[in-house]
TrEMBL record:
Domain of life where this protein originates: Eukaryota
Protein name: Uncharacterized protein
Organism (species): Diphasiastrum complanatum
Length: 332
């Protein structure tokens, strides 16, 4: 029996009027090996084939000239299987393409997709980002986490990119980022990076460098717009280079080797501070150390530091930070 679209799509016209249509086909989780029994209306706007068993692409997909979003997440597609994408000119107006969680070893040929805004090729077997140079510079979001990528290259032309996700790869050096001047979010957790080099990317609002090989926080001091900074599970010895990050709301430097709270006395917007699993020995002088975020801080984690064994642990924190709502896992 032919599968029919399972959801409606609200189309918004230029004058603001909305029209409800049935141009979305969602057959996620159906474990299909092919689409022989699936009807593919040529006026589809969205096609979601997530969590099936597809090893090749149905040729009818190449005729969906109105398609805006196309997801092939969690299938069994290899490089040969996705080669037709580059030849199907009817798909070249696609805005979002998801190839996440397949068996790809290289970036497919997508030079004709001149309207592409979102591209996800995470959870594959890529060893490099070779081929990204042929993807349109209009791209706004690029996801390539959980691959085997060693170097960051062929990304220089993405001057409109806002989100870059390269976590869980084998990257050792932060390079090839200097032209990404519109970047707002950079996710590089679970790599092998030893030093922070943000190449003057002063529009960044979120950075994750968790689970790398950092020994220093230096390199982030010019990111004045930064709101969220994640540096847990490294080998950082000192809190430094963050005093100018006056927009910072969340700071996670848990599971490092920090022995003293410092350099945050100007962070008057800081709300969440994660310092658990470090080497902080005492709470003496915390009033001065926390003078900046005294009234903004609502959550703090200090458990599994030597100072957490202080009999007055909770009371001292509350005296220094009167607006706390959570200490470690304890909701106040």
């Amino acid at each position: 029996m032919a599968t029919q679209p399972s959801a409606s799509f609200v189309l918004q016209h230029a004058d603001g009027a909305e029209e409800e249509t049935d141009h979305v086909l969602d057959i996620t989780g159906s474990q299909l090996h092919d689409l022989l029994d699936v009807e593919l209306p040529e006026d589809l706007l969205e096609l979601d084939l997530t969590a099936n068993r597809l090893c090749e692409l149905d040729g009818r997909i190449g005729k969906l000239s109105q398609l805006q979003k196309f997801s092939l997440r969690q299938n069994l597609l290899n490089d040969d299987a996705v080669q037709p994408l580059g030849q199907w000119s009817s798909l070249f107006d696609l805005k979002e393409l998801v190839l996440r969680d397949n068996k790809l070893t290289m970036v497919p040929p997508l030079s004709g997709f001149t309207s592409l805004l979102v591209f996800d090729i995470s959870f594959n077997e890529l060893t490099s980002t070779h081929g990204m140079a042929k993807i349109t510079s209009k791209l706004r979001e690029l996801y390539a986490s959980k691959n085997e990528i060693v170097n960051i290259d062929e990304l220089e032309h993405f001057n409109q990119l806002q989100i870059l996700e390269l976590g869980s790869n084998k990257i050792r050096v932060m390079e090839g980022l200097h032209n990404l001047t519109a970047l707002q979010e950079l996710w590089l957790g679970r790599n092998r990076i030893r030093a922070i080099d943000l190449c003057g990317l002063n529009r960044l609002e979120k950075i994750s460098l968790q689970s790398n090989r950092l020994s220093s926080m230096l390199g982030i001091q010019d990111c004045a717009r930064l709101e969220e900074l994640y540096l847990s599970h490294n080998s950082i010895f000192r809190m430094e280079g963050i005093s100018a990050l006056i927009s910072l709301r969340i700071l996670d430097i848990s599971s490092n080797k920090i022995s003293k709270v410092e350099d945050i006395n100007k962070l008057t917007r800081l709300e969440d501070l994660w310092l658990n699993d470090n080497l902080i020995t005492t709470l003496d002088g915390i009033e001065d150390a926390f003078s900046g975020p005294k009234y903004s801080l609502t959550t703090i984690y200090l458990e599994r530091n030597p100072c957490a064994a202080d009999p007055g642990y909770i009371s001292k924190l509350l005296a220094a930070l009167p607006n706390l709502q959570q200490i470690d896992s304890h909701i106040l």
